[in-house]
Amino acid sequence: MSRMVRVALIQAKHEVHGDEPVAKHHEKAIEKHLKMIKEAAEKKAQIVCLQEIFTGPYFCAEQSTKWYEATERIPDGPTTRLMQEQAKKYGMVIVVPLYEETITGVYYNTAAVIDADGKYLGKFRKIHIPHVQAGKTSATGFWEKFYFKPGNLGHPVFETAYAKIGVYICYDRHFPEGPRILGLNGAEILFNPSATVAGLSEYLWKLEQPAQAVANACFIGAINRVGVEAPWNMGHFYGSSYLCDPRGQLIAEGSREDDEVVIGDADLDLIKEVRNTWQFFRDRRPETYGDICAP
After folding, report:
1. Is 126 a catalytic residue?
2. pLDDT one-digit tens code per residue, 107-116
3. Catalytic: which of 60, 72, 101, 126?
4. Is 271 within a domain?
5. pTM across the whole model
6. For 235, which of 187, 197, 249, 273 could close a Cys bridge (C-beta 3.0–4.6 Å)?
7. Is residue 295 part of a domain?
8. Is 293 a catalytic residue?
9. Which CATH number goes with the domain that contains 262?
């Protein structure tokens, strides 16, 4: 009997203007996502992943201390507790990307992982932090070093009620070492919540992560928000969230424009089948790879 797990990827447009108070952003985002989580439950999803920093806009388009107000503690903050209630209510695992505060002035781009019984399992902190201009003449950019300290929790694998899962966040997807570590440590489904706009890297969206799924013989859920966010208008968040299998084939895919709960079924038995065909882990030569760890 196959180990089939139903996965939901939630992509959503953030429609509150950036000039509004941080509290309003949080309120409206929570309101929208609670409805979408309910929809995922009605579609019998067992694992749900939300988009990067789902409680607000992609504020990293500017550098403003205003957005430090969006931070909260994990797991003791209100959103983690709320999502624990939702997970228990629906019997779903939920991956919850948030702007985390540890102490005043020390903030991380983080994803909390909550099991189907509402238990908090742990968190992943984004490791690779971009700080680049969005365009040649644009004042906006991906100014993440202004907001986030690099992650320091490594690449944990979370054993949930339905699957062993790993998380990496947005820019981390450009670095293959993280998914490899997760695969070697037993992760069956990897999730990459993101906020990325059309332009330079869009062609990589359906190239890099299916390739990672093949290299590590696992499923990958890639999530991206949709729409254009004012007042920055830095570009079009093109959605296109998808679930791909260990052969790199897309099982389910979202639109480029619309709020959507993308549903896909992951047959975890396929992992064994693919690994027994392509013996990439058997044929690794880690003793020859030392140079990639050199400064």
Report:
1. yes
2. 999 999 999 9
3. 126
4. yes
5. 0.97
6. 197
7. no
8. no
9. 3.60.110.10
